[in-house]
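User: I'm writing a tutorial on reading structure tokens. Could you give me a worked example: one chain, its sequence, then its tokens, then a sentence or two explaining what the tokens reveal?
Assistant: Sure. Here is the example chain.
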Amino acid sequence: MKQIFLLAAALLSTLSLAAPLSVKAENSAAVRRLLETRECSGCNLTGANLKGAHLIGVDLRNANLKGANLEGVNLEGADLTGANLKSANLTKAFISDSILNNANLTNVNLSNSRLYNSDVDGAIMANIDLSGADVFNTAISIGGEY
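And here are its predicted structure tokens:
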């Protein structure tokens, strides 16, 4: 009996470690809505894992993406006006013709990403990691005017 209990405990702990941690329960409906409708204005996507997602033309105005994993995401033509992207991972992201006006980009990792022709008027841009990033016609620069 003791061996069965130990075996069951080992199996359950292995399954719990293998379970995907991609989306918190409280925002899984918001992630599903975003992926299905391309619109999630004002959604709570805190900590969501959207790694590699094709979010072309999505409406994420005023969405909370704090700490979200957006590694390798395609945000071409996306509207992120007023979005909270604090501490989000946008490594290797493709951000082209996007609107990030008044967005919170504090502590955002944009390393190895491509930012082209995007609006960032009024955005908070403190402590951004732009290492290896390719920035063109976007008002983000390192140590000078763009």
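What the tokens reveal: The mean pLDDT is 85. Residues 112 and 133 are 4 Å apart (CA to CA).
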